[in-house]
Amino acid sequence: MPRPSLRSRTTKRKKVRTPGGRVVIHVVKKKHNVPKCAVCKKPLHGFPKMTAKEERKGHRPPGRPYGGYICSNCLKKGIKQAIRLIQS
Q1: Is 17 in a helix, a strand, or coil?
Q2: How far apart are CA 57 and CA 60, in angstroms?
Q3: Are 46 and 59 in contact (CB under 8 A)?
Q4: Which residue pairs, CB below 8 angstroms and at least 24 apart, start in 36-41?
């Protein structure tokens, strides 16, 4: 019997056939939410939903400045604001 936290109905289960011919139930790990932009709170592009193990393994964020923290639209607006402040 699985531990109590895995007995809830929200956990997904998958039937797996073992080499011995038995069919057993494996509990599928839940995926975490997609990272959100720190400014506008929209989901960041280029980040899939991942399990905790996949997150620890690592996922490469976009290479631009603030990649993986701010979306490209907010970064574009921020750069424009900074330049406008410098020019005035």
Answers
A1: strand
A2: 10
A3: no
A4: 37/69, 37/70, 37/71, 37/74, 38/69, 38/70, 38/74, 39/70, 39/71, 39/74, 39/78, 40/71, 40/73, 40/74
Q: What is the pLDDT of residue 79?
A: 93
Give the residue extent of every domain in the chain: 4-87
Residue 26 near residue 13 (C-beta atoms within 8 A): yes
Q: How far is CA 58 from CA 24, 62, 83, 84, in A?
A: 30, 13, 34, 37
pLDDT of 87 reads: 86
Listed as ranges, residues in the chain with pLDDT below 70 are none
pLDDT of 48 reads 86
Task: List for the chain the helix, strand, coil content (%; round to 5).
Answer: 30, 15, 55
Q: What is the pLDDT of residue 7?
A: 86
